[in-house]
Each structure stands twice: as structure tokens, then as C-alpha cells.
């Protein structure tokens, strides 16, 4: 399945010549070697206004990016996991205010880091339990080992949890470890990007009685026709997967990063709800249309419209933004004027970030520079796929927003 342009752009408010600037601009990234290749899809009112590919999915083999190329989407898995959780919430299986220790007892009696070193951390008791909404909003006090900004991050790395978990660990075992490590902050008091969505994936498993991959397949992927989305690739499908790259520190050119990229060719023991999926533009386009249309696409409804509206409002304490509540470290979003909902960053005010976004736009991205956003006001979605990590290497996301909104002229 592929995503082809379905309408003349000017019929839905786009200037075709201005849309062509997208390809011209990002084509330069390929021409000078900063990216190996990319794919872009822009839609409005359910119609594809712009769909393009450029460059190579595998430089060494001379294979071009094609419409059905597969991409490691990493943290763009998080919105899928969040939708899965909210499907169970709609069934009354839990409340957002429930303590997660009801299903995951390893998260009872938590401790919070106060001071000290990695070798001798001093902790205090948590005064608030981790609740389901804390997982969805990254306000649980959990962290990521690869952040490298705090003592707690280093404790995660010492336990073997950096960019990838230990090879012999499953999701249940990982959550046991996370429950034993101190929290970075008291739950609900700050925002810290973290393994929270992996823990949410484990909660889905326990509540539903299914493994995370089975739940995704039965309840989301098959119903939506997302036939390309999977946890690993094998056989003939392996040739469709774009190679992973990182920037050469001397030249800035993208060079292969097979040490990490090759993990996609093996079935993972740990099903990461925070970053484990591989997908295609067509599949993730279907998923963004589901969100834009209030939980239904092509006659398949996964969520009620009110639930999607609940998910895409700012849930940070006191209506504050990420600029105020973030603990810092790696981020895939600007902070000022940006709130966080149940699985997405949410634009409360676009002015502090000096961007063209609409109020109420929601979005996220992956560490290999993939990104998406949904703008309900303009009935617009945009997708960008490439395979360069980290995502902070080049300002691809902000530049795509400039180019897309500059082409919207009605």
C-alpha cells in the first residue's frame, strides 16, 4: 500500500508551487549528504495534497526510497500505545486516576531521588503513587538512561537500560527493574521524557490479558489495515527497510549506524510500547487520519471523538507548559507554549516557539528524525520519514512546518 496524491492541491487550499519547495528544500539535504533519503506526506480534509520521496533507502546497495519503504519510527510508537490504553479506558477497565500498582505491584512503595551520587544515591519516599495519567503524560518520575542528565539516568544505564534494553529481558522483567530504581521526581510535579510508555505497554498486557504485539494486531493494526506495521523485518521484506544513519562528527554527512539499526532484523524479546515499531508512510497516514477524524477512519472506529479530544488537550499540572515543567535532556519538541496530552505534545500557544502551528495542533516524533503532526483547525496532517539519529541533528521538523504552512493559502 502507498500514499499517492489524491487531489489537485489548489482544490484544498494549497499552492502547488509552494508545496514544491518541500522537495527542493529537503532535496538539498540529500544532495550534500546530510540525509540519505526521505519521504513526505501532507494531507488536508482527508485528501493527499503532497506525497514525495527522494534519495536512497540504502546507499551502499543503490536502492531508492520508494512509496512502500519501511522506517523505524521509534517514539512514534508512543501514540499507538496511548491509543491502545485509551481503548481499554473506554471499556471501563481502569480510570486515569487509578494507581498503576493495582496491576503492577512492582510500582508500590516507590522511592524518589533526593541527592547523592550514582554509587551512593539518597532517596525519600514517594508522596504520590504513579497513576495511569502520569504514564500517558510523562509526569510519572521515570526517565531514560540515554538522557545522561541526572544521577537517576546513570542508574538506568548501570542497570543496562540505555538506547536499548539488555538482550535477554522482556517487558515484564524491565518493569520490575524500573520499579526498583528511584524516581527522578515526585509523580505529577514535573515532566520527564521516559520509559513511561513502555510501562503503559505492560499495563495494557496485564489489563487485557494479551501480549502487546497481539493487542496491537487484533485491536489496531488489522482493523485499520496497517499491514506494514510490525516489530521487526525478515525475509524479502528486509530489503524495504531504510538503513539507519548518524551524522559524521567531522563532516555532518550521514553514515550508516548498523550497530543499532541491525536490531530491526531480529524479533525483540522486549516489546517496547515506547519505541519498538517499524512502519510505512501509508500505515502511519492511516493512523493520523484516525486521530484527525476523531477516532474513526474508513468505517473503523477505535475511539470516541470525546476521547480523542481528551487526549489532545494539555494535561500538565496547572495548565503549565513543557518549558516550565521539563527536567531537560533529550527532547523531540520545543518547550515554550507546548503542553502535553495523553500521548502527544499539544500546542497551547504557538507564539513563544515562533512557529506557524495552530492552537490545538498535536504531534510527536522518533529519535531517527521521523515526525508527524495533526492540525484539527486546518484539518491537516503531515508526515516526515528519514533514518538519522539523533533527531536533534538538523531542524527538519520546524523547517517542514514552515514549508507546509507557507503553502497553505486559502
TrEMBL record:
One Pfam entry name: Beta-lactamase
The Beta-lactamase-related domain, residue ranges: 22-401
Signal peptide (from-to): none
PANTHER family linked: BETA-LACTAMASE FAMILY PROTEIN (AFU_ORTHOLOGUE AFUA_5G07500), BETA-LACTAMASE-RELATED
Protein name: CubicO group peptidase, beta-lactamase class C family
Native species: Micromonospora nigra
Lineage: Bacteria, Bacillati, Actinomycetota, Actinomycetes, Micromonosporales
Amino acid at each position: 500500500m502507498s500514499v499517492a496524491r489524491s487531489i489537485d492541491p489548489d482544490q484544498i487550499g494549497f499552492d502547488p508551487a509552494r508545496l514544491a519547495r518541500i522537495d527542493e528544500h529537503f532535496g538539498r539535504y540529500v544532495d550534500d549528504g546530510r540525509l540519505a533519503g526521505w519521504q513526505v506526506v501532507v494531507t488536508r480534509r482527508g485528501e493527499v495534497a503532497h506525497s514525495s520521496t527522494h534519495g536512497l533507502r540504502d546507499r551502499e546497495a543503490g536502492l531508492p526510497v520508494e512509496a512502500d519503504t519501511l522506517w523505524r519510527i521509534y517514539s512514534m510508537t508512543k501514540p499507538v500505545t496511548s491509543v491502545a490504553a485509551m481503548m481499554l479506558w473506554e471499556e471501563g477497565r481502569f480510570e486515569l486516576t487509578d494507581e498503576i500498582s493495582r496491576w503492577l505491584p512492582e510500582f508500590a512503595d516507590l522511592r524518589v531521588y533526593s541527592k547523592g551520587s550514582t554509587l551512593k544515591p539518597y532517596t525519600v519516599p514517594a508522596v504520590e503513587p504513579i497513576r495511569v495519567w502520569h504514564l500517558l503524560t510523562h509526569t510519572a518520575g521515570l526517565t531514560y538512561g540515554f538522557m545522561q542528565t541526572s544521577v537517576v539516568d546513570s542508574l538506568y544505564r548501570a542497570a543496562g537500560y540505555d538506547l536499548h534494553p539488555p538482550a535477554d529481558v522482556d517487558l515484564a522483567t524491565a518493569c520490575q527493574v524500573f520499579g526498583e530504581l528511584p524516581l527522578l521526581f515526585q509523580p505529577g510535579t514535573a515532566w520527564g521524557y521516559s520509559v513511561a510508555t513502555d510501562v503503559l505497554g505492560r499495563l495494557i498486557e496485564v489489563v487485557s490479558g494479551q501480549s502487546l504485539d497481539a493487542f496491537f494486531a487484533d485491536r489496531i493494526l488489522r482493523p485499520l489495515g496497517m499491514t506494514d506495521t510490525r516489530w521487526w523485518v525478515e525475509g524479502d521484506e528486509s530489503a524495504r527497510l531504510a538503513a539507519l544513519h548518524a551524522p559524521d562528527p567531522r563532516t555532518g554527512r550521514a553514515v550508516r549506524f548498523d550497530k543499532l539499526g541491525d536490531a530491526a532484523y531480529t524479533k525483540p524479546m522486549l516489546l517496547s510500547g515506547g519505541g519498538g515499531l517499524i512502519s510505512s508512510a501509508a500505515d502511519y497516514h492511516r493512523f493520523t487520519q484516525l486521530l484527525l477524524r476523531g477516532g474513526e477512519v474508513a468505517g473503523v472506529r477505535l475511539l470516541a471523538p470525546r476521547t480523542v479530544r481528551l487526549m489532545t488537550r494539555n494535561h500538565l499540572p496547572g495548565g503549565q507548559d513543557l518549558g516550565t515543567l521539563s527536567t531537560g535532556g533529550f527532547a523531540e519538541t520545543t518547550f515554550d507554549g507546548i503542553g502535553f496530552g495523553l500521548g502527544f505534545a499539544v500546542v497551547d500557544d504557538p507564539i513563544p516557539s515562533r512557529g506557524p502551528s495552530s492552537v490545538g495542533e498535536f504531534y510527536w516524533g522518533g529519535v531517527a528524525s521521523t515526525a508527524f503532526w495533526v492540525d484539527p483547525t486546518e484539518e491537516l496532517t503531515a508526515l516526515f520519514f528519514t533514518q538519522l539519529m539523533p533527531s536533534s541533528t538538523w531542524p527538519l521538523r520546524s523547517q517542514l512546518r514552515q514549508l507546509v504552512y507557507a503553502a497553505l493559502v486559502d
